[in-house]
Amino acid sequence: MQRQRVKSEDDDQPPPAKKLRYFNDPTQSRANRWDRIVIVEGQKFHVIAAHLAQHSDMFDGLFFGAFAEKDQKEVTLNDPVITAEDFQYFLEATNGELTINDSNVNSVMHLADIWGATTVRKQCEKFLMMETKKATKEKLEIAKQYGMDELVKKAVSEIKSMKEIIELVPDRKSLELLEKPMLEMLLTQALRFPFPGCVLSNELMK
What is the pTM assigned to this prediction? Predict the structure, then answer.
């Protein structure tokens, strides 16, 4: 079953206007610099098949596997989840640009996950570990969805008050949904703070 990316409150924020690389401008992407065209939302992106295949299992199969698209000069991605804007960021990331930010990390991470793009995933992980301003709850949601254990540890270690823990675990139902490793980390962190009545109190007193 295909994963659905975590919806972020930052998704509605306007992204940076300036592109770091140009993939659809004929003056910037000359014929000798590309060999395929990928179309997303009607927008054409001039790419190098071997480069994309190197960075993505999906594109490796699409361009060099047993798919009809392997012999097509132009390939259209019709997935409604994929936007031209997100694909622009993804391509920039495969070219080593520092394009990941709080506005696009959710969508780029989603593409990296479904397309098997290890290098792009690592860029997203590094950003989430080192630079993001996202709230702890959202970082933990992303970390859980994509199996980012180190991000879980870091996010929990940065909790600064019992109030934050209560926001993460407001009731018994929320507590029961926690996996054991997460519960243990939250309990350990909670011991650093005074703990007025909350669902973790009974756990702490055991």
Answer: 0.77
